[in-house]
Design brief:
Layout lengths: L1 H27 L3 H19 L5 H10 L9 E6 L4 E6 L3 E9 L3 E4 L5 H7 L27 H7 L2 H4 L3 E8 L2 E7 L9 E2 L3 H15 L24 H5 L16 H7 L6 H4 L15 H15 L2 H16 L5 E2 L13 E3 L1 H12 L3 E2 L2 E2 L5 H5 L33 E5 L3 E6 L4 E7 L10 H10 L14
């Protein structure tokens, strides 16, 4: 009996030593996967608390833990309202990661904990916040006519709206005809667009094209590329996701995209140092890294840092009346053009209407002629799925396979964000939510049902562009 007790004591001691050693390892060298998880938790909670005004516990539960990796359920966060910071730790103890809120520029991950460097990266005042007017949408936030009851009924169909829908807005001929919101959300709630941000980032670059400061054919884009084959990469190659640069966009592991977003304070560093895997223009590779590069390139072309930080507001958001738009910046001062734009569903719809009108707003051309055309033109290397302007023609399948008009093009983002633009029907449909891809939701059936419900859906409604 004594022998058994000695063995049990030895095993207990061994278990304690293993636990202590494991805890020490997690403190000193936490795995990258845990650091990514904590970085994600800190960033999402920070943006939703400080931009959208939501409760931290709700965001942690609903946005971070519910839809993702089981490890995320062990993340714990704390919010420091005095210093505008959020800290996330695995099990409340390990692999700490941080996010910092900067007024007007949203939240940024600070994976190295260097808050001083993050603050110095943006030493300027943010652009002044715009206040929405009471005018009829899109000039203001006025409701206008009663919603279309037929379309409203379609939006109430859970099968068409999809799981965890947070907002749907339908615009026809330049006016909102129906909208709906998930529990706890409203027309005033800023929502993340994820990769829909890429298309907005491309439009900001297009504004710079109109000023003659950059063009599709520009090459020698970064100083560090000047002496190697990457100097041949053109702006058009980056816009079409055909740069030839290696980039791993697999979200199921610690890949280039998660390392860029949550482990590196400088999001440009990884894609800028990526090796070539193909000649420019020869291979399609969906890459959030290309959007980060485009942000850095257009910011450098603006002229000076203060003007670059103000440029999205001055050149696009203010003219369109996107009063809620917050375009977030990384910890070293580059706009996170791949993922991080928050805006209300009404403001996302304004951007869609802007593209429907070929880059013209209130009679003023804000994008060069042909730029929106590039957003609707497929690239050869993507086999017709992706376009020349950071947008999609066929997310999840070609339009014809769903019975949709051939001129339909899309903005598409992680977790079920989508915007369909159908010029021939004068239609914009924005759908935002928290709908992971493994749920299998596709927005095309919703769009098809709306098109079928529209009177004279096949006729062009381009006259909306005259506003």
């Amino acid at each position: 009996m004594r022998f058994v007790l000695r063995v049990l004591k030895a095993l207990a001691l061994l278990l304690i030593l293993v636990v202590i050693a494991g805890a020490g390892w997690l403190f000193v060298r936490p795995p990258e996967l845990l650091r990514v998880g904590d970085g994600y938790a800190a960033k999402i909670v920070c943006s939703n608390v400080f931009i959208a005004g939501r409760e931290a516990d709700e965001v942690l539960r609903d946005d971070v833990q519910a839809p993702g990796n089981p490890l995320l359920r062990l993340m714990r966060v704390s919010v420091d309202h005095d210093n505008d910071r959020v800290t996330a730790r695995f099990m409340g103890m390990f692999a700490p990661s941080y996010a910092l809120y900067r007024s007007g520029l949203g939240c940024t991950t600070v994976p190295d904990g260097d808050f001083e460097a993050a603050a110095k990266a943006v030493p300027f005042d943010a652009p002044p916040r715009m206040e929405p007017s009471d005018a009829l949408w899109p000039e203001g936030e006025g409701a206008g006519n009663e919603p279309d009851k037929t379309i409203a009924a379609l939006l109430a169909d859970a099968r068409l709206a999809g799981p965890a829908m947070r907002a749907i807005v339908v615009v026809r001929s330049g006016r909102i005809v129906a909208e709906t919101y998930g529990p706890g959300f409203s027309a005033k709630t800023p929502l993340i667009g994820w990769s829909m941000t890429k298309t907005v980032n491309a439009a900001i670059l297009g504004r710079l094209m109109l000023d003659g400061k950059i063009s599709f054919d520009d090459d020698h884009l970064l100083a560090q590329w000047k002496n190697d084959e990457r100097a041949r990469i053109k702006v058009s190659d980056l816009l079409g996701m055909e740069s030839g640069l290696s980039f791993n966009e697999d979200y199921g592991e610690v890949a280039d995209v998660t390392r860029m977003l949550y482990l590196d304070p400088d999001m440009v560093s990884l894609p800028a140092n990526a090796p070539m895997e193909a000649a420019p223009g020869q291979r399609f590779r969906y890459s959030s890294g290309t959007a980060a590069l485009l942000s850095r390139i257009w910011m450098d072309r603006v002229g000076n840092a203060q003007a670059a930080f103000s440029y999205p507001h001055d050149a696009l958001f203010s003219p369109l009346g996107m009063t809620s738009a917050v375009f977030e910046v990384d910890a070293r001062g580059t706009f996170a053009g791949s993922s991080y734009l928050y805006a209300t569903a009404h403001d996302w719809a304004r951007f869609g209407q802007f593209l429907l009108q070929d880059g013209v707003w209130n009679g003023r051309r804000l994008l060069p002629e042909g730029f929106v055309g590039a957003m609707r033109t497929p690239t050869v290397a993507s086999t017709g799925r992706y376009t020349q302007g950071q947008a999609w023609l066929a997310p999840g399948g070609p339009s014809a396979a769903f019975g949709l008009p051939e001129d339909t093009f899309w903005l598409s983002g992680h977790d079920g964000q989508s915007m369909a633009i159908v010029p021939s029907a004068g239609l914009v449909v924005v759908r935002l939510g928290l709908t992971p891809g493994w749920l299998g939701y596709q927005p095309q059936p919703l769009l098809k049902a709306i098109l079928a419900a529209l009177p004279q859906a096949g006729e062009s409604q381009q006259q909306a562009g005259s506003q």
